[in-house]
Amino acid sequence: MDRPLAVARPPTSTIMRPEEWDGRDLSGQRFEAVAFAGVDLAEQHERGASFVDCTFRGVRFNAGEHRDAAFLNAIFIDCSFFDVRFIGCKLVGSAFERCTFGPLVVEGGDWSLVDLAGADLRQAEFRSVRMAEADLSGARFDGAVLRECGLAGAWLRGTNLHATDLRGSDLSSLDPLDADVGEARIDVEQALVIATALGLRIG
Q1: Which residue of 95, 111, 171, 182 could cross-link 115, Cys pair, CB 3.0 to 4.6 Å?
Q2: What is the domain range of residue 90?
Q3: How many domains are contained in the chain?
Q4: Does 144 share its domain with 170?
Q5: Are 193 and 173 contacting, i.e. CB atoms less than 8 angstroms apart?
Q6: Rounded CA gap, 14 and 73, in Å?
Q7: What CATH number should be reported for the domain holding residue 177?
Q8: Is 10 exposed, middle or buried (0-12, 13-18, 19+ CB in 10 A)?
């Protein structure tokens, strides 16, 4: 099955550069169609910021925490996410290109239609996150955590899930012959789903 087509993204209308950024608190701020070029957002601890149709290029998000924030139809290019927490955030329709991820914690929120194809997320923890139709093809989650996540319709072709904690997640879209699932942790209900996908008869 081919990967889904990329979502068309409207052009940005404003550019924010490092010399124009004043290190403001992002809490409750709203940005639309803004390009953030090389801006340092490290150590931002904010709540309720909104970014719609924005582009982040070469931006550092390190050591930050974002609560109840929205990054809708955003694109992240060459950005750094090290020791970052997203709590109850919406990233619907957003895409990550050539980004680096260190320890990353995502709790709750909606990451549906997100493009994380090929991303190295070996140090990530996703818990109770809605990731419907997310493109995770070729991504590395080996040794990571994907607990109780809504992966319905997610693209998992070539995804490395070796030793991943998948307990409680929706695995209805997983073809166990088209991904590395060796030593992954699953529960009994998930085992039945996978057995059915393999054409096995239970009982």
Answers
A1: 95
A2: 10-103
A3: 2
A4: yes
A5: no
A6: 16
A7: 2.160.20.80
A8: exposed
